[in-house]
Design brief:
It contains 3 helices and 7 strands. It is of the alpha+beta class and 146 residues long. It has a single domain, classed as Roll (Thiol Ester Dehydrase, Chain A), CATH 3.10.129. The strands form 2 sheets. The protein has a 5-stranded antiparallel beta sheet. β5 and β6 form a beta hairpin. The protein is globular.
Length: 146
């Protein structure tokens, strides 16, 4: 099965760091969101289109494993993939690496995942529209539960 990984970059801003001079841990969730948003925009549709369909995809679960710190001005490579899909939920997996430059292999800093559930604006669980499931399923390895 072909693995589909979307890649984007972000530069660490000074405001992303804490008093210790490293990226504050919660900011990695923002980087995850950056990767997920750009993947969805490129491969499925923009989140604004999803909202127009009458539902949103809030995070219902997240996990992060920190391997090494990022600091101000690092160029981060965010790798995002869709790892699971059901009729209601979608799981995204992430790897954040530092671009070491000069042709060197990027250094893994953080890996993790987020799970999102389709809900109405009123907060009620709902099925993902079939056209969205079809688009997402093209990039999801293995079994897709529908």
């Amino acid at each position: 099965m072909e693995k589909h990984v979307y890649q984007t970059t972000v530069r660490v801003l000074y405001g992303d760091t804490d008093a210790g001079g490293v990226v504050y841990n919660a900011n990695y969730l923002r980087y995850f969101e950056h990767g997920r948003t750009e993947l969805m925009r490129e491969w499925v549709c923009a989140y604004s289109e999803i909202e127009k369909m009458g539902f949103i995809l809030p995070v219902t679960e997240c996990w992060t494993r920190f391997k090494a710190p990022a600091v101000y001005d690092d160029l981060l490579i965010i790798e995002t993939e869709i790892s699971e899909l059901t009729k209601i939920t979608c799981k995204f997996s992430y790897r954040i690496c530092r671009d070491e430059g000069n042709g060197k292999k990027p250094k893994l800093l953080v890996k993790g995942y987020t799970v999102h559930a389709a809900v109405t604006r009123e907060g009620k669980l709902t099925r993902l529209p079939s056209d969205i499931i079809t688009k997402i399923a093209k990039y999801t390895p293995g079994k897709v539960e529908t």
